[in-house]
Amino acid sequence: MDYVLKTEGLTKAYGGNFVVDHVNMHVKKGDIYGFIGKNGAGKTTFMRLVAGLAAPMEGNIELFGSRELKKQRLRIGTLIEQPGIYDTMTAWENMEVMRRNFGITDKNSTGQMLEFVGLSKAGKKKVKNFSLGMKQRLGIAIALYRNPDFLILDEPINGLDPEGIKEMRDLLLKLNEEKQITILISSHILGELSKIATNYGIIKEGALIEEFEANQLESRCRRCQKLIVDNVELGTTILEEKCHITSYDIPEPGTIRVFDGLDQTWKLNQELVQGGVRLKESYLTGQDLEGYFMGLLGGVEHV
Questions:
Q1: Which residues of 25-64 are buried (b: 16+ CB within 10 A; e: fewer)?
Q2: pTM, whole model, 2 decimals?
């Protein structure tokens, strides 16, 4: 499997507090990887470690299958914390400064990049008069200047209005689909993230507690009747033969999740008990996206 980013035991501490705690992350080529955690969970520090803006205490980073990080980081574009732009300059002037800094000789590249991110009509407007969404798009344009294969974005839609969020979402999908850029993106707006992410990583108190694919998320949030029983094999036989239910799974030993017949859960319970199954628990469950993530992270704070 081709990994754009792979970390093993990546760790960083400040003042004895582990901000990134032995993180093993796997970002595959072509992913839009949604990185989720509360404020202070370690998302930004992790991104800074990968980008070379901070040094790890221990652990390894592989980029594009290599540990020659200085070379491979030339293939990364980053937008971490605030875009590095000059407020008193126009978008064009900012891009020209970066073009010269990067040693890019093609003068047409500035106009092409501004057009790609939707800023070709910004004209002589100073960046200090830009909306937040325009500033974020300019930051992404700068991150894209060297045609990266991997883009790291820290909260690019945080604080945007609905129109700005949609523009950013469309831009990221365009980058992923048209330019084949793999993206690692953190965001507080989970509903929006779910519209583009192909994979997720959940970080809590510096530790990556789970990684999973987007199609697994749909299953995890699906409404179901959860049964805790003493005999799963007998229970599933009764479901199929007596209740004619085949839409179920066994997520862990002793547990059955039933996705059909949720309007007659009492009948299913009755059949199980009469069939000799000891029913320890039976309840309806299933959450929306934000509810699911908050259950993983704990508490009710913004994530």
A1: bbbbeebbbbbbbbeebbbbbbbbbbbeebebeebebbbb
A2: 0.78
